[in-house]
Amino acid sequence: MRIGIVCYPTFGGSGVLATELGKALAQKGHQVHFITYQQPVRLSAFVPNIFYHEVQVPTYPLFDFPPYETTLASTMVNVIKTNNLDLLHVHYAIPHASAAYMAKKYCRRKAATFL
Name one GO molecular function term (predicted). Predict the structure, then answer.
């Protein structure tokens, strides 16, 4: 399968769990695509079948915080369509869940199963 995983890349429960899940799936022969704003800290060495897609968050002077959610949704759509993903695992709740909802609506076809 071609699987996308959206997670926080930092040390901590959800980032570590998502990265280890992706590494285990890759070892079983699945193609795993991490979608996040920086390379996951637990993904420090080359692992076959693992790909990293950086969410390029622009700075925007109007907002105090960059528009991560919209940029994440856009990156998800791009990775889903470019890599023909079968499954997108969204790890953690907000903003990942709402970004996944936007990406799913934008794709309008069964590009991937969202979990």
Answer: glycosyltransferase activity
Provide CB contacts within 8 A for 101, sequence distance 6+: none
Indicate if the pLDDT at residue 50 is higher than 80: yes
Q: Kindly report the pTM of this predicted structure.
A: 0.80
In one letter, which amino acid is 18? A
Residues 6+ apart with CB under 8 A from 71: 55, 56, 57, 58
> How far is Cα 86 from Cα 59, in angstroms, rounded to an integer?
32
pLDDT at 10: 84
Q: What is the mean pLDDT of residues 90-110?
A: 73
Whether 4 shows a pLDDT value over 70: the answer reads yes
DSSP of the chain, one letter per residue? -EEEEE---SSSHHHHHHHHHHHHHHHTT-EEEEEESS--TT--S--TTEEEEE--PPP-TTSSS--HHHHHHHHHHHHHHHHT-SEEEE-SSTTHHHHHHHHHHHH-S-S-EE-
